[in-house]
């Protein structure tokens, strides 16, 4: 096995000089070579968002949170929350059913939580940090940072608990059903902690 070379280890560097073909001393790759413009734009957007404190300190999920709040408020105002959730479940069914096929083939229900939280930007763009444990995911409700100042302005009349109970829980349970698994979602907690667990 070839030993990795560290630049501050003169003995190893001397060995590389003697036997260059056996060295693992190669240029470092990030996996983003050729995408420098994209990365630059992403960093610029992150900095602009973090620098924006007009009204409240914006976070990286700000635009997605606002877009979701607008849609949820519309569904509430029109009295069609159940139809909105149903439409969401139907739209996402092809993806969730594909995860269900993986679970059926492998028997690994953990794939459901990975599909709901880790491998979907719909979750990790909305929820900035998710704690991962086998059979369980935990995070803080993403709505409060935007909802509080917008409530003061009269833009919304939603509560985080209402969103959790009328939108999130039925929606995520519909996703899980399409995957062929059963999940448990925590009741609303005043500290905003949400827990999603697989049911055996």
Q: What strand line-up does the widest sheet have?
A: 1-2-4-3
Secondary-structure element series:
HHHHHHEEHHEE
The class by helix and strand makeup works out as alpha+beta
Radius of gyration: 23 Å
CATH topology of the domain at 61-198: Muramoyl-pentapeptide Carboxypeptidase, domain 2
Number of strands: 4
Q: What's the level 1 CATH class of the domain at 61-198?
A: Alpha Beta
Largest sheet: 4 strands, antiparallel
Supply the key terms.
4 strands, Muramoyl-pentapeptide Carboxypeptidase, domain 2, disordered N terminus, four-stranded antiparallel β-sheet, 8 helices
Description of the molecule:
It contains eight helices and four strands. The chain is of the alpha+beta class and 200 residues long. The chain has a domain at 61-198: Muramoyl-pentapeptide Carboxypeptidase, domain 2 (2-Layer Sandwich), CATH 3.30.1380. It has a four-stranded antiparallel sheet with strand order 1-2-4-3, covered by helices on one side. β3 and β4 (193-198) form a beta hairpin. α3 crosses α4 (81-106). The longest helix is centred in the middle third of the chain and has 26 residues, at 81-106. It is globular and about 75 Å long. Mean pLDDT is 88; it is low at 1-9.
């Amino acid at each position: 096995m070839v030993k990795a070379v560290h630049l501050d280890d003169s003995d190893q560097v001397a060995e590389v000089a003697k036997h260059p073909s056996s060295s693992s001393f190669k240029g470092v790759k990030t996996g983003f070579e050729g995408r420098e413009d994209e990365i630059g734009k992403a960093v610029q957007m992150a900095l602009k968002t973090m620098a924006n404190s007009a009204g409240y300190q914006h976070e990286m999920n700000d635009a997605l949170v606002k877009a979701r709040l607008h849609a949820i408020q519309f569904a509430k105002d029109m009295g069609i929350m159940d139809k909105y959730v149903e439409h969401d479940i139907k739209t996402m069914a092809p993806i969730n059913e594909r995860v269900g096929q993986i679970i059926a083939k492998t028997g690994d229900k953990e794939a459901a939580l990975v599909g709901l939280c880790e491998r979907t930007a719909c979750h990790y763009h909305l929820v900035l940090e998710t704690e991962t444990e086998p059979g369980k995911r935990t995070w803080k409700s993403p709505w409060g940072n935007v909802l509080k100042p917008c409530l003061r302005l009269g833009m919304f009349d939603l509560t985080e608990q209402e969103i959790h109970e009328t939108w999130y829980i039925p929606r995520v349970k519909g996703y899980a059903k399409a995957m062929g698994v059963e999940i448990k979602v925590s009741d609303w907690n005043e500290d905003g902690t949400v827990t999603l667990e697989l049911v055996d």
